[in-house]
Structure formats: structure tokens, C-alpha cells
């Protein structure tokens, strides 16, 4: 809890000068950000290594790294394409001595990152998100994505480009949210 509090303080301080999250969401840090992120551990309990695509302010990746810190096999890769966000993530990782690595780059280009699970929150519509996640799934990862109330529409749209199996679960932190657990994934072939 102390490290989650320290992360919240660092986020609040940095958010005052750099827009990482909507300022109106900070008072709801525990339910909107921390619990929302933490619930992913129950979706893939055997996962020790994670990749957070488009890590942004560190949700869910930094929360996962904090909660997995006492696991010697745990590691989280925080991947983001914006340098200023990567600097913030690196500061939190160093300050809290988290089992995490920050990668400044595009999620779909990380050929050397092998993980048990890949995740993302508020990164892209499902069709594009599956493209970002495909390399990780091809190497054996599972995918769990935090999505909002338009998830059914996003899944229908994604089926135009992708064949996949999925399980949709309600979020425990927000009745409007959903968690999408992706199984097999392959691109639809053009005729």
C-alpha cells in the first residue's frame, strides 16, 4: 500500500505539469486506476511477465509491477512511444525499485520481449490493438485488455480483420468496463 501511495503522489505531482491522466480522475485513483489495473492479476494468475502496450501513465503496468514486486520471477515491460511518458515511467520504476523495464518504442516492434501476458488500457480500438498484440500472442502470451462500454462494437469491427476467440468479463472496478481475454488470433485473409 505504501508503494501504491508513493506512485499516486508521483502521478499527482507530475500530472500538474504534464497531462498523464485526466485531473478529475485523480480523486478516484484507488477504484479508477489502481483496482482497475490490479484485477488483471486474477485473470491470468499464472503470468509472471507482462507487457503493457502504450503504458502511458503506468496503468495497468506500474500497478502490476508494484503488486508483483515480491515475486522473484516477475517482470513488467512498460512500452510507450512518447519520450516524456517514458521518462515519468522510468522515474517511478527507479524510485520504487520495481521489477520493470521501460521501452521507448512502438509496441508491435518489440521482437525480443517474451511475456506470459500482454495488456493495454485506453490505447486503441480493438482492431488496431490486436495488431499491436499479435507478435506477443504468436510467441505464446495471453492478452487481457481493459475496455469500456463500447467493447461489443469494437469486437464486431475487429472481426472484419481478425479471427480470434475471446472471453468477455465484467470489470470489478467499473460496472461499465469490461476485460477482454483474447485466445487464438490470426489475421483474416483477403480474397
UniProtKB/TrEMBL annotation:
Cite the EC number: 2.1.1.170
Q: Which UniProt keywords apply?
A: Cytoplasm, Methyltransferase, rRNA processing, S-adenosyl-L-methionine, Transferase
Q: Which domain of life is it from?
A: Bacteria
Locate the residues binding S-adenosyl-L-methionine.
54, 59, 107-108, 121
Instruction: Name the coiled-coil region(s).
Output: none
**Top EC group:** transferase
Entry's localization field: Cytoplasm
> What GO CC terms are in its UniProt record?
cytosol
Give an example GO molecular function. Answer: rRNA (guanine-N7-)-methyltransferase activity
What is the protein's major site of localization? cytoplasm
One Pfam family name is GidB
Q: Which reaction does it catalyse?
A: guanosine(527) in 16S rRNA + S-adenosyl-L-methionine = N(7)-methylguanosine(527) in 16S rRNA + S-adenosyl-L-homocysteine
The UniProt family comment states:
Belongs to the methyltransferase superfamily. RNA methyltransferase RsmG family.
Q: Which NCBIfam families match?
A: rsmG_gidB
Q: Name the HAMAP family for this protein.
A: 16SrRNA_methyltr_G (MF_00074)
Function recorded in the entry: Specifically methylates the N7 position of guanine in position 527 of 16S rRNA.
- The entry's protein name is Ribosomal RNA small subunit methyltransferase G
Species of provenance: Brevundimonas halotolerans
Gene name of the encoded protein = rsmG
